[in-house]
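Researcher: Re-running this chain for the archive, since the previous output was lost when a drive failed. Same request as before.
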Amino acid sequence: MSKPLNERKSGTWQKLPLLIWLVIVWGALWQDFSLGNLVFGALIAIGVSKAFYLPPVELTGRFNVLRAAVFALRFLFDVTVASFEVLYLAVVRGPAIRNAVIAVPLRSKSDLMMTATGHVLSLIPGSLVVEVDRGTSTLYVHALNVATAEDAEKVRAGIQAIEAGLIRIMGSREEVAALKAETAPPSPKETP
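Model: Regenerated structure tokens:
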């Protein structure tokens, strides 16, 4: 028995963000964002979504374009700086650098937010997500040049800043409110 037309339309609209994301990942993997490659990626994404069960992506219904533009500029800056840092470490320091795998607990329990944070992080040279624990919303990240606990804490804070930026762009209202409460200065205590 076939589904009613309105259920099929809502299923298609629910899958649309995932299909768009799959096409972007396809272009990034091939490092080719030409029209022909993206159309071929779209055909593959549609085929994958028809052949395999893909969980629906739960969207918050909000997207802040201004914050996205600021985030994109910051991302480009981070990629540029990290590229030069990796170059310096490879040429000058060589095999003497120490690396670490760092557990980074995330604020959001959303699969979309965890995935977006992991992808943004993995695109910045010098870091790579090696494991994701969905149950605890924790990313395990391999990072270059981490010799002390303070270095590890700096890496962890940087990753949580990436997640905070993504929450400001497309997080739920509850996530944004929790982030604001977390970053707000403590209110002065009332004196009698």
